[in-house]
Design goal:
The chain is mainly alpha-helical. The chain has four helices and no strands.
Length: 138
């Protein structure tokens, strides 16, 4: 009776895929940390986030209010991170001043401003009535 040759097990793709996904999260966190270390505007957003979360906990926001606040905060952070990335790429490809490079940076900064103003409106709608009722406004 012939003896079957041992076969090598097939390599598992799933663990390798998980390692790659985990590494991509690591790169993303590294990017956020790098931006936090170098971008003063992001420090302001971080401080504002802490204040908003603290105020939300103090006021006992409803679930839908937390959802609106979380989306607004997240959108501002995303806009600021994208702005930072655009500025870095523009500086890389156009180290000297160029009007189009300036326009790209201005438009990216404008996107952050628009999102921050929208987040301010969300904050006024969510926190305003509660603070008014407490006598904190006016």
């Amino acid at each position: 009776m012939p003896v079957a040759e041992p076969t090598e097990p097939k390599p598992r793709r799933f663990p390798a895929l998980l390692r790659k996904r985990a590494a991509s999260f690591g790169y993303a966190f590294r990017g956020v940390w790098a931006a936090l270390r170098t971008e003063v505007h992001l420090w302001f957003h971080a401080a504002a986030t802490v204040v908003v979360v603290g105020l939300g906990l103090y006021l006992g926001l409803a679930r839908w209010e937390w959802a609106a606040v979380a989306l607004a905060v997240g959108a501002v952070w995303c806009a600021e991170l994208v702005n930072t990335a655009i500025e870095a790429v523009v500086n890389l490809v156009s180290p000297d001043y160029h009007p189009l490079a300036g326009r790209a940076k201005d438009v990216a900064a404008g996107a952050v401003l628009v999102m921050a103003l929208a987040a301010l409106v969300v904050g006024l709608l969510v926190f305003g009535p509660r603070l008014w009722a407490l006598g904190g406004i006016g």
